[in-house]
Structure formats: structure tokens, C-alpha cells
Amino acid sequence: MEKFGLDEYEVFALLDELYAKDTQYKQVLSSMCTHPHSIAVKAHQRFISANLGDPGLFAGTAEIEQKVVRLIGKLLHGEDAAGYLTTGGTEGNIQAVRAARNNRNVKKPNIVVSESAHFSFDKISDLLQIEVRKASVDDVLRVDVESVESLIDKNTIALIGIAGTTEFGQIDPIKELSGLSEEHGLFLHVDAAFGGFVIPFLDKHYDFDFSLSGVTSMVCDPHKMGFGTIPTGGLLFRENDSIERLKTETPYLTSRTQHSLVGTRSGASAAAAYAVMTHLGTEGYKKIVDYCMNLTSHLVTRVRELGIEPVIEPVTNVVVLNLPEVNYVREKLYQKGWVTSITRKPVGMRLIMMPHVTETMLDAFISDLEKVITSTDIRKH
Ligand code: PLP
């Protein structure tokens, strides 16, 4: 820090210079986040100083947080679920597994996840010193329930189902996992960080939430398809007992205990999530999901005209294209300003049809994709 500060104009000149280096969402096809809704931004600003880590000081904001938990609970058929707002799916997954571990006295605990799981489970393995067993997937990239069962032993404390996988947007067979977890007396945590604000609004019905009696906890993030501000995740437990396993005493705060992983927490995020959920209602979210799914169908139809197939028929608004020389194609597209991403297994080009994507933007992208794949360059490459 310099001894004397700059005036606001100079500070913003510095900030603007760096902001200009950020990629604008209008070229981003690789992100599960998007522009927050304007009402969320407004609410976020109003509550900018509120700290949920000290809820006695911010009683109104603490009430808002619980209202958001109830709204998410209602969406996921868990009206009585207990929970709190996290920084996102990673924190939610860590805390859910931590609660499962604290619930059982197992010396060398393990959990079983799909090999398609988000990398937060690798962090969990390291942080909590829990073995993370990876089950194989079926031909449409859902976790294989037989493979899951074969990995369960006396040290297994939880199964994980994913509702909206990060790479393929696929939904695991949560109903079967629910049955399996009840049969073996295990926690079943459903990672719906992305899918939680998508799956309830799809035309096709999926059993994936607290309506299944084996589901013990879920994550569902407002800062992804919920149109909230970053950072906002939701962590919900079916039973209050489970969240109690996360309790720490907080001697010098206005509350006596805390369940969250982090201490100081954004009240602004809670206000933003409440504002947008209350403003949009389920009809509003349905319109957004319809919009994203129409873009998804449009993309698939247009790439098929170019002879390109998706790796799986999209289930949510994630499309993965089966392309030869995918990294070369992505690089060429990047030079034209498009940011795409890649999947691990099978390898493909991953495109997420978020609300910031428009049909015009998509058509411009497809036109560039066509140029890249028909260029002599790619054939020589
Ligand atoms: N779980 C799933 C299914 C995700 O897609 C993601 C992120 O994309 C996460 C967890 C991690 O969420 P976050 O980045 O908010 O911590």
C-alpha cells in the first residue's frame, strides 16, 4: 500500500483497466455462473455490510437466510429441511460429508461417488481424510448402481448422487441410490449444485430430491442457475440432527453456536437470493429453464447439421460435443473470442446454455465452429 491513497476517480481508472481484461459473459459458453438478476444485485448492495457469521447483530438478515433455506427446501420437497447458505457447492459438499462422518464413529471412513463427480470431492478426501471411492458410469454417464454397491463396505459412511453433473449435466439414478442407502443405513448426499434450479423445471420429471426417503442432504446453488449473486450456495439436511453434527461453540459472538464452515458470511448473498426467488417465483424459473433448454435443442439441431453428435442426448442445459482434435478446435474458437471447456472422460467440447446465451450468439458461435471444422487447417492438423 502507498502512504497516501488515490482519489476515487484514479482508483476506478485502475479497476476499469483490470475489468477490461475480464471475459464478458456474452462470449462465455463454459461457465455455470451467469449475470445475477438485477433485483439480486440491488438487494445485495442494500445488505452489503450484513454478516451472517454474527446473526444476533443482523437478526433480519438471519431471518432472510432461513426464508431462503425454506424456499429451496420447498423446491426440493424438503419443507422441513434445516440448513444454511454456503459459499457454493464445494463448501456444501464438504459440510455434508463432514456431517456424515461426525454421525458415525468409523476409523477409516469412505464415501462412494461417481467418477463423474465434481473435483470438490477430491478436496474432501484431502481435507477430511476420507477415502473417496469412484464408481463407474453407464453408457449415458450416470453412476452405475451395481458399481456403487460393489464399493460399499463396513467403513462406508455415505453415498453421493449427482443431479446435474458438472461435465455432462447428467442426473444420476437417485431413486436407486436412495434405496441402496436405506438398505445399507448410509447417508445419501445429493449434489444438485447446478441441477437444483434446473431439474424441478424440466418438462420431464426426475426423482432426485427429498421426496425420496433415503436422501439425507442436498446442495443447490443460487449462484449458478438460481440467478443469485456470487457467492451463494444452499446446503440442506432432511433432519435437524444432521446439521447439529456440524455445531461449534462461538463464545464471543451474539450466537452461542455456529454450523457453517466459514465464520464471517455474506448477508448480501442471502438477501440477493431471497429477492430473486421471491421475484421470479417458480413460473419465472420455469421460463428461464425453458429458454435454456430451447437453446440446448437449437444447438444440438444445428451441430447435427454439421455432422457433429453430442456425447449424450442432453438432459439439462449442458451439451458436450464429440469432436476430433477437440483442443485444436477449441483453440481456434478461442482465437475468434469463444470460451468453451472440455470434459475428461469421454473427452468432448463442453458448452453450457446459461441464461446469458442468446440464439444470435449461438448462431455466431456455430458459424465459427463450422468454419473451423471445415478449414483445411484442421484436416492437416
Ligand atoms: N457440484 C457440482 C455438480 C458443480 O457443478 C459444481 C461447480 O460447478 C460444484 C459442486 C462446486 O461448486 P462451487 O464452485 O460453487 O464451489
From TrEMBL:
The keyword Lyase applies. It is an enzyme of class 4 (lyase). The modification N6-(pyridoxal phosphate)lysine is found at residue 224. Pathway: Cofactor biosynthesis; coenzyme A biosynthesis; Cofactor biosynthesis; methanofuran biosynthesis. It catalyses: L-tyrosine + H(+) = tyramine + CO2; L-aspartate + H(+) = beta-alanine + CO2. SUPFAM superfamilies: PLP-dependent transferases. Keywords: Decarboxylase, Lyase, Pyridoxal phosphate. Its EC number is 4.1.1.11, 4.1.1.25. One of its GO terms (biological process) is methanofuran biosynthetic process. One of its GO terms (molecular function) is tyrosine decarboxylase activity. Pfam families: Pyridoxal_deC. Its cofactor is pyridoxal 5'-phosphate. HAMAP family: MfnA_decarbox. Catalyzes the decarboxylation of L-tyrosine to produce tyramine for methanofuran biosynthesis. Can also catalyze the decarboxylation of L-aspartate to produce beta-alanine for coenzyme A (CoA) biosynthesis. Belongs to the group II decarboxylase family. MfnA subfamily. Belongs to the group II decarboxylase family. Sphingosine-1-phosphate lyase subfamily. This is Probable L-tyrosine/L-aspartate decarboxylase.
